[in-house]
Amino acid sequence: MKKNTVILFCLALWSCSQKKIDLKDLIVGQKPNIDLSAFTDNIKEQRGRFEMPTENGVQLVDKGEKVVYYYFAGKKNITFYKAKIADVLETKVVTYNGLVSFISVHPDNRDAVSLLKDLLKTYGAPDSISYDTRKFIGSDSETANVLKNALPRYVKEVADEFDNKSTQYPQQFFWSKNDILTHITIDPTNANLNMSVKIVTKRAYMDHIVQEYAKPLLKEYDSPFAHLFKK
User: Fold this and answer.
1) This prediction's pTM
2) Beta strand pairing status for 43-54 and 57-71?
């Protein structure tokens, strides 16, 4: 009897240790196909949407929206396209009225380059790219090589009127397809991409459900997807 109990206990531990999720398997715009609460205890409910611009930002207005945040930072059993997620920078999934409506991923820098290559291959040519130009010098000079390795088609050396050379690279990529908006941002430094990936439904975006995209409510900001909606 004791032997059977030990076996069952070991099987239970094994089962728990095997519980994993790759966030790419979530279908954005549909009900979660897995129980997200089984992978995190850090769950928060939000009442309403972001409206009413004030001098201090925006405020929530409750119009009956049901918004739930699931936070995963530091979870070793959570991946995105097989890439590990960062330990500190937040990775989260947001459901809006029961539908997966926002996925925000900060990958571990050690997996960021391979993840970026996979995403560019999967998504194809971006609808829009926002470029930045920086001079990587000294201890940060290796960063330029990381960018060239990750984005050989998009990174190039440019020179100003004084023949001072800098590196031009994509800072943001944008895609809009089937009412799903995808936004990749990189902030390269110290030979790391410091990348984030945000996927949001047009409905959640237009309704200002997540604070990251509530800034367009304030006049001093413009929507990062405004150009896509004008098409």
Assistant:
1) 0.86
2) antiparallel
